[in-house]
């Protein structure tokens, strides 16, 4: 009976908040099929050679960039560029940048567990001394209303507020640079709290959760499938109970009040 009383109290509170809606939920669902999420390209400046992305006016003509298409699989790729002309005795700035063509920017805001590892670097076909440093990747780089992930190999320009010198600035390049890297955990953030997955976390979701918890409290089983249970398990303890109702209610109240809410599942101290 105690649980039911709690549920009743929460329900009463939820009715008072009925006008409150939250539209910040990420509506994309986890993909099972292989889809292309964007591209990864080498960008930077080495001597007179420069490449800054497709159709950029700063691109030099004696350079051919070979970006790779990135999918949502865990996979290894190689991006490269080839140069013609005299070559260069130095590299000023070099990164691997992950771009998308749509609003699902390749960042940790879209893919919370995204992991990029640069495995090896070849110059003119020969592997060079390379060790990826801990701060080499900026998983949330935003500029001009666009978000990307940048894996820096050489960044002495303080981009992203960090310096990276994982390859030597004195690296001479006559023909090509190839970077082999691995991408893992490309799955979208689950729309936690949005139980009916309509893109909004509101009291309808709260009601569904409260009813399910009440049903279980009354000795009946849960009516939620595995995904719904996961979306509702806001403290991540694999059980749906009044704590999850509390967190969902708090979330709705906070977003209604314009307070930034912590992402789910919450960390229970
Ligand atoms: Ca909803
Ligand atoms: Ca729970």
From TrEMBL:
Record InterPro entries: Dockerin_dom, Dockerin_dom_sf, EF_Hand_1_Ca_BS
Signal peptide: 1-21
Keywords: Signal
Any single GO BP term: polysaccharide catabolic process
Dockerin domain boundaries: 188-266
Name this protein carries in UniProt: Dockerin domain-containing protein
Naturally occurring in which organism (per UniProt): Ruminococcus callidus ATCC 27760
């Amino acid at each position: 009976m105690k649980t039911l009383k709690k549920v009743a109290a929460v329900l009463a509170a939820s009715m008072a908040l009925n006008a409150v809606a939250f539209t910040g939920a990420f509506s994309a669902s986890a993909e099972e099929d292989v889809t292309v999420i964007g591209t990864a390209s080498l960008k930077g400046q080495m001597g007179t050679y420069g490449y800054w992305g497709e159709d950029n006016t700063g691109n030099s003509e004696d350079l051919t960039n070979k970006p790779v298409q990135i999918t949502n699989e865990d996979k290894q790729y190689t991006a490269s560029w080839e140069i013609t002309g005299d070559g260069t005795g130095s590299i000023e700035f070099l990164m691997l940048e992950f771009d998308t063509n749509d609003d699902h920017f390749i960042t940790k805001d879209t893919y919370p567990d995204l992991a990029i590892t640069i495995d090896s670097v070849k110059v003119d076909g020969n592997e060079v001394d390379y060790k990826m440093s801990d701060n080499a990747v900026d998983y949330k780089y935003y500029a001009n209303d666009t978000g990307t992930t940048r894996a820096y190999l050489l960044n002495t320009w303080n981009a992203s507020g960090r310096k990276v010198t994982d390859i030597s600035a004195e690296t001479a390049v006559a023909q090509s640079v190839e970077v082999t890297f691995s991408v893992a955990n490309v799955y979208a953030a689950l729309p936690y709290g949005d139980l009916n997955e309509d893109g909004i976390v509101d009291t309808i979701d709260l009601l569904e959760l409260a009813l399910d918890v009440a049903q279980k409290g009354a000795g009946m089983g849960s009516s939620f499938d595995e995904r719904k249970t996961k979306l509702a398990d806001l403290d991540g303890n694999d059980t749906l109970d009044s704590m999850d109702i509390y967190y969902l209610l708090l979330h709705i109240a906070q977003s209604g009040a314009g307070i930034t809410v912590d992402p789910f599942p919450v960390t229970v101290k």
